[in-house]
Amino acid sequence: MWHRSARRAALEGSLSNTHSQTYARRPRGVGHGRLLIAAALLSMLAACDGGTQDASAGVENGTQNGTQNGASAQDAQARSKANAPVNGAKLIKISASTAATPTAQLIAQPTTQPHAQSRAEVYAQVRRMTALGKQMFFDPSLSGSGKMSCATCHSPNHAFTPANALDVQIGGADMHRQGMRAVPTLKYLQSVPAFAEHYHDSDDEGDESIDAGPTGGLTWDGRVDHGGDQARIPLLSSFEMASTPAKVTAAVRAAPYANAFREAFGEHVFDDDNATFQAVLKSLETFEQAPEVFYPYTSKYDAYLAGKTALSAAELRGLQLFNDEKKGNCASCHISQRAKDGAPPQFSDFGLIAIGVPRNRTLAVNRDPRFFDLGACGPERTDLDHRAEFCGLFRTPTLRNVALKKTFFHNGVYHSLEDVLRFYARRDTNPQEFYPVVKGKVKKFDDLPQQYWANLNTEPPFDRKPGDAPVFSDAEIKDVMAFLDTLTDGWQPPAH
Ligand code: HEC
Ligand code: HEC
């Protein structure tokens, strides 16, 4: 099994190599897919007419609602350190190590393509696509039912998670079909690396020989690498937007933004359903990378890291419990410290991990006792089926804005942070509180067949047994909750 702490050790500059390597590293470099995106965009740019039109419907429109646009200088600084490098060398480095690289960075790379656009033209095209992507994100006419947009499940006022507290959402052509997974946030996905079975951190300070195990990719099981490929999933899913490329094309052609769409993608874009569909996916992907909406770094914790504010006593205690390797050890997966280059933490290392979340018996799919959502080994993801070592693994979510969520874990089994923290604190010391008890015997890990239990993480906080003290007392749980509250964007210094 892999050690998440290997990643943390790498981040902290300690080079102890404790894991055993099971597979040879795949030859595919993590940057490969991104170069393809760049090529696709460049050809799109070549196809677009000129690229100098007015881009007034630009990124500034992207800052509506819950996300903040009143960013302070320090926020801007944190942002630019983390994700928006504008100078050449850093730009190339970042785009070679992250999957959801902001499109602007990708296409701003020097290129030998014959139809290369100037940097200004490229940025103008990104602004157009961002504005279009935003309109489509909120447009229910793209769905088969005509009633569901991306924002139905990814509400901007709730960090792009649902406004309701359902375990999983309801969709489909008749709006009666239940999904099988809880909706993740769309914020802070910009540095999720492309999925790799064996992730080797290319950070300067890391030891590249350290294998952090399966890491990256979008969705709970990491099955796609790019926002465009991801957007295809809900648009076509029978239990989500239940649409088709032809329906999407017809909707865009009739939409108030049809002319802007033609301006961005060419007069003839609507002649071909597939070309239109691809342009829709690319626009959604581009919108999802607007920094001021999706990764503003405006939480109290960011201000604290920048030395602009202090944490309360409870918040500080919570942070210590969160970081303490013998207590929560949360930061070994949900990284809480700046990287060596100063980039603010994402609160995830994007590793795919099995933590034995209890089965959610209210889900329709789970009425069949033989059905299991095994994450990376299927059924939603299909390329790793029959690979037992991937069963039960789900991608570690960011904890930024987690206090705005109403549903937690991949199957939506919990509805309060307190319940999630009790699970972490008492899963192994008091398992009967979380799993069914049959004839006096606790059926632990009831959502993962026993043959896959070897995949379960066993590092703290998952290293205890009945009779041991829980990882956190009830008071400590409150402190960790207070700390998690500091991760919500849009913090303002108290008025005095
Ligand atoms: C019916 C609810 C629903 C709708 C509508 C919906 N999504 Fe999602 N979204 C989900 C769920 C559930 C997941 C997790 C899916 C999984 O793990 O298989 C998800 C995952 C994602 C992710 C990956 C997040 C991550 O952490 O990797 C992105 C990006 C995303 N959705 C974007 C979109 C876009 C763009 C649209 C509109 C085209 C959209 N979604 C429409 C429910 C929805
Ligand atoms: C070994 C890696 C690991 C450690 C250690 C860890 N987590 Fe997690 N965390 C995960 C994974 C993986 C998930 C998703 C699990 C799932 O849904 O199946 C998760 C999910 C969560 C969620 C739910 C987020 C959401 O959007 O649904 C919260 C909250 C959370 N963790 C907090 C913590 C806290 C607090 C600690 C320390 C007590 C901690 N985690 C320790 C890997 C880890």
Describe this structure in words.
The chain has 496 residues and is mainly alpha-helical. The protein has 2 domains: 291 residues, Cytochrome Bc1 Complex, Chain D, domain 2 (Orthogonal Bundle); 186 residues, Orthogonal Bundle (Cytochrome Bc1 Complex, Chain D, domain 2). The chain is 31% helix and 2% strand. The chain contains 16 helices and 6 strands. The strands form 3 sheets. The protein has a two-stranded antiparallel sheet. The protein has a two-stranded antiparallel ribbon with strand order 3-4. It has a two-stranded antiparallel sheet with strand order 5-6. Strand 1 and strand 2 form a beta hairpin. Bound molecules: heme C (2 copies). One heme C (HEC) binds next to helix 7 and helix 8. It is found in: Cell envelope. Keywords: Heme, Iron, Metal-binding, Oxidoreductase, Peroxidase, Signal.
SSE topology:
Blueprint: H1 4-11, H2 32-47, H3 73-82, H4 88-95, H5 103-107, H6 119-137, H7 150-153, E1 170-171, E2 177-178, H8 227-236, H9 245-253, H10 258-265, H11 273-287, H12 291-294, H13 300-305, H14 313-323, E3 352-353, E4 394-395, H15 417-426, E5 437-438, E6 441-442, H16 474-485
Antiparallel strand pairs: 1-2, 3-4, 5-6
The structure holds heme C (2 copies).
Domain Cytochrome c: 128-285, 313-488
Protein name: Cytochrome c peroxidase
Keywords: Heme, Iron, Metal-binding, Oxidoreductase, Peroxidase, Signal
